[in-house]
Amino acid sequence: MQELLNHPAVQGGLAPFVIALIVAELLQRLRLSGLATIAGFAITVYLVSDFAIEPLTSARKIVLLGLLSALLALTLLRLNWRPLRLMLAVAGGIATVWMALRILQQQDMTSMLLWSGGCALYVGWLIFWMDTLHAAPVRAGSAGMALGLGTGGSALFGASALLGQFGLALGAAASAYLLLQAVTNSRLPCGRSFTLPLSFIAGLTGCLAVLTAKLPWYALPVLAIIPLAAKIPISEKMKLWLQSLLLSITTLSCTAGALYLTWRVAGAPPF
To answer: 71: which residues sit within 8 A by CB, 6+ positions away?
Structure first.
């Protein structure tokens, strides 16, 4: 059993998928199904590192910030203050610089400012535009699946197994959340408990993979299109499985683009 739990495919794929499926269903009546993504991510972290904090590396900062963002999202469930979306994006950008600070400090001043601004902008962008989907569970699920798989797959291609598992766990959890809606033909509660931690963790993971692995920086703008791709006009009268399919095809095309760009630079993943 322990050997099975130690398998990377189980840690970053099967386990978060199953846990997210269970959490999404059990918390549906409490309107907290959006916590499925952070639950899936958490089980992967537990299996990979057992939530160790010391030393506080950049990867462990991602875990800490991701969990804190989920707690923050719970406090914002009923808050629809208009400037909040921008405030979350700015806060996410600042947190991104803190996450990568030790790495950025090893560069010259010009490079440090350039990378700091670029990473902060990327994470803030994802938080802002994913937040626009927090009331659209099918669109959010499709975008979350594509963003997680794209980030994790690109990080894996870029020779970072840990960051690859982080991203793939998000993608697997979002896939479970989306699949449950397609199968039952009923929308699950979403909210910022789904969109905020997912976009935050995916953004941080992508930035760290660029800074420490072989993920090319220009793959990130392709991934950044995903929340916008999930906003394509489709009829709300369609069955949810058909909506999920159409939205997934659109968003996963961005995932495929990012994977292709990374493959061109880094080659095949180190399986």
So the answer is: none
**pLDDT interval class at 98 (50, 70, 90):** very high
Please, what is the average pLDDT of the chain? 90
18 — phi, psi (to 5°)?
-65, -45
- Written in H, E and C, the secondary structure of 87-122 is HHHHHHHHHHHHHCHHHHCCCCHHHHHHHHHHHHHH
- Predicted local confidence at residue 2, as pLDDT: 62
Find out whether 155 and 164 touch, Cβ atoms under 8 Å.
Answer: yes
Q: Long-range pairs for 112-116 at CB < 8 Å and ≥24 separation?
A: 115/211
How many other CB atoms are there within 10 angstroms of residue 258's CB atom?
29
Q: Are 62 and 204 in contact (CB under 8 A)?
A: yes
232 pLDDT above the threshold of 90: yes
Range name among 18-22, 64-68, 236-240, 249-253 with the lowest pLDDT average: 236-240
Q: Are 226 and 146 in contact (CB under 8 A)?
A: yes
Give the pLDDT confidence score for residue 55 in this predicted structure: 83
Collect contacts of 115-121 with beta carbons under 8 A, ≥24 apart.
Answer: 115/211, 118/217, 119/93, 119/207, 119/210, 119/211, 120/92, 120/93, 120/94, 120/96, 121/93
Cβ–Cβ under 8 Å, residues 38 and 180: no
Residue with tokens 């537990």: 46
* Close Cβ partners of 244 (under 8 Å, ≥ 6 residues apart): 138, 141, 142, 178, 179, 181, 182
Q: Which of 39, 1, 45 is nearest to 21 (CA)?
A: 39
Residue type at 155 in one-letter notation: A
pTM of the prediction?
0.94
